[in-house]
Write a structure and sequence with these properties.
Largest sheet: 6 strands, mixed
Oligomer: single chain
Order of helices and strands: EEEHEEEEEEHEEEHEEEEHEEEEHHEE
Radius of gyration: 29 Å
Strand order of the largest sheet: 5-4-3-2-1-17
Shape: globular
Distance between the termini: 46 Å
Number of domains: 4
Number of helices: 6
Length: about 400
């Protein structure tokens, strides 16, 4: 029995983009996709393909922190309201989601179809290789799916479909089984599962023959060791979005030599020395999926007075960046003053000694290591411990403030 890649009612991150103009986070729940757009973490002068390791690590860290913000709001996300949403920061530092339907790049007209229309909901997604590359089951048949989830990938899917159309009748591609639709719009292409093995040196003659057939139609194809498979002795070409029409004239010979014959020569020289280490698509594990479990909101004030409960001793902690003051030989967070005042007045009302004088040593600073953002204040929290015992076996819990 086929099992969905993501369990029911679970929200998962299945892919994203960290670009100069914005950050995109693709989320999946119960067969529905919601894309959250956040402000960019890259500066306008930074080139994401060339900046140094430190900048790349900072960019990745900031992008992941954006995912932490989303995780704090996951229980509030409504996948039925729109296909797109914007992650905004309020003036108090909390986060908000603004929903808005976003039309994606329109694809081919119904008159140019290669196969029947298949609603996305009819496909059981069994693996997310990425948000755009998936595997699944349709009518009991294993299939590969390529989905356009933003404008960039919608254009690539459109070119993939055009590549299949250009090579129709050459017996060089996996069969197209359907055009995937969502809300009446074509968003993807579904093909038979790409089973088989990757190209090796003994396949040299068959591959040269296949590329000759492609060129005979006035087309050029990007030859890569990851793009060519062998199934039952037949060549199968992948990544058909790379197919282009060849221009006439002197540029024709230059283009053909660069993309076909020079590329094939280098490919088989490499395969002569080493085997093809590229794994088939069906062997690639799910690398992008991250289950988003609800977590306490980040850096949001706690709307309750835990100090009013006399059954607990309260340990106040703050981050290392918080201001600390010295009292005698002990360092104490500024926020402990208010708690001392509370416990003093509370003790006087009940005829007890003040916590300030009797148990001040219990109020100690505690540093929590957590992701930081220059845009948000440091987090403050409460470490709660039952007063029944002062042994190391006590159970602690903490709440973000």
């Amino acid at each position: 029995m086929a099992v969905d890649a993501i369990p029911p009612h679970v929200t998962a991150y299945v892919g994203g983009e960290n670009d100069l103009d914005c950050c995109l986070y693709a989320l999946w729940r119960d067969g529905q996709l919601l894309v959250l757009q956040a402000p960019p973490v890259l500066s306008a002068h930074e080139d994401p393909t060339s900046f140094d390791t430190a900048s790349r690590e900072r960019s990745t860290s900031e992008f992941r922190f954006g995912l932490e913000k989303i995780a704090a709001l996951v229980h509030k996300l409504d996948f039925n309201r729109a296909n797109w949403a914007y992650l905004a920061t309020r003036t108090d530092g909390s986060f908000n989601v603004i929903y808005k339907n976003k039309p994606l790049h329109p694809m081919i007209s119904p008159g140019n179809l290669l196969a029947p229309l298949v609603e996305e909901a009819e496909i059981i997604t069994t693996k997310f290789i990425s948000c755009e590359q998936r595997q699944g089951l349709w009518n009991g048949t294993e299939v590969d799916i390529m989905i356009g989830w933003n404008d960039q990938w919608m254009k690539l899917v459109e070119r993939e479909i055009e590549g299949h159309r250009c090579l129709r009748g050459l017996d060089l591609t996996f069969e197209v089984l359907g055009h995937v639709t969502r809300d009446g719009q074509i968003i993807g292409i579904m093909t038979e599962s790409a089973t088989g093995r990757m190209v090796e040196y003994p396949d040299r003659a068959a591959v040269y023959d296949a590329i000759t057939k492609v060129q005979s139609r006035g087309l050029v194809y990007s030859v890569q060791e990851s793009n060519i498979m062998i199934v039952d002795g037949k060549v199968r070409l992948l990544s058909l979005a790379s197919i282009r029409k060849i221009r006439s004239g002197e540029e024709h010979a230059t283009t053909v030599n660069r993309f076909h014959w020079d590329a094939l020569r280098k490919l088989f020289e490499k395969l002569f020395q080493y085997p093809n280490f590229m794994p088939p698509l069906q062997c690639i594990r799910q690398q992008t999926i991250k289950i988003l479990a609800p977590v306490p909101p980040l850096y949001k004030p706690l709307a309750t007075n835990l100090a009013s409960n006399p059954l607990f001793k309260i340990f106040v902690f703050a981050s290392a960046s918080s201001s600390l003051v010295r009292k005698g030989s002990a360092r104490q967070p500024i926020t402990s003053r208010a708690l001392e005042h509370y416990h003093t007045s509370h003790a006087q009302q009940h005829g007890q000694r003040s916590l300030t004088h009797s148990r001040r040593h219990d109020i100690t600073p505690y540093t929590r290591h957590a992701p930081r953002s220059r845009h948000h204040p440091p987090s403050v929290g409460l470490l709660l411990r039952s007063p029944a015992s002062d042994t190391s076996s006590e159970t602690d819990s903490c709440v973000s403030l």
